[in-house]
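Work through what follows:
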Amino acid sequence: MRDTRPYLLPGTFPEIRRGSLTTLQVNLGYRCNQQCQHCHVNAGPRRTENMTAETVADVIEVLRSGVIRALDLTGGAPELNPHFRALVTTARDLGVHVIDRCNLTILSEPGHEDLAEFLAGQGVEVVASLPCYLQENVDSQRGKGVYDASMLGLQKLNALGYGLPDSRLLLNLVYNPLGPYLPPSQESLENDYRARLAEQGLAFSHLLTITNMPIKRFGSMLLSKGSFDEYLALLKLSYQEDNLANVMCRSLVSVDWQGYVYDCDFNQMLDMPVSCEDGRLHIRDLDPATMPGKAIAVGDHCFGCTAGQGSSCGGALS
């Protein structure tokens, strides 16, 4: 795999600083039951990295501070971490909102048949990646059979109340472009998704559009096809200064499977950690009260979050 880091750093992205820290995004490991072309984490079935019980305990100690409002769990498939359910249960007992970034197919994997019921019982918000509502596009990006398994996952979640009108159980779908271009209007694409999935009797809460980052697997693919410079130029040309006020790194930190802290998930993949006097900042030493005002590590990949309508783990910014 070709490394895009030298093409993105130091870069020309403007300086930005943190606001109040409200969200911990925790990567529980890179193991996944899928291997997607656009994956910026380079996750897959053969990855072995997994957060330990000791590091999970460090995360819980930060949650006990009472400052963090949301715990955003990602991977890989975060549910494959053996400590996933204990972490979710403890966080919910502490009154923290929990988000599970679920790939839908995990809900049918052996040993996880009751996962949907567990998530519903804990009131977990499910953010489920579904790159298209067409079978051909999903299977071409994620592998044969993924579309059917994803539809089955949606059926399971809907049967529990997820994504239904007036339900407290949020089910948000995520769209990533299939190639080197920006997502279309989030609002108009949501209407298309809603209409097409309704034909199968399926419902969801909202659609989140996320721009593909030119890093890891997707970035390597761009380099191999000779389209990396063109895509990066598109991101820079589409830069919108107004999006700077709402980028996710102002209120979120990303924690890797070893417990080290980054300004965002993308910086984690580029090995750009938050620094401290002893080197890399570890979650056990994180004091949320000290984060406001700190400079955020940036590079040219950050144009992906500010291009066009903007992009974050919560979808479009404008």
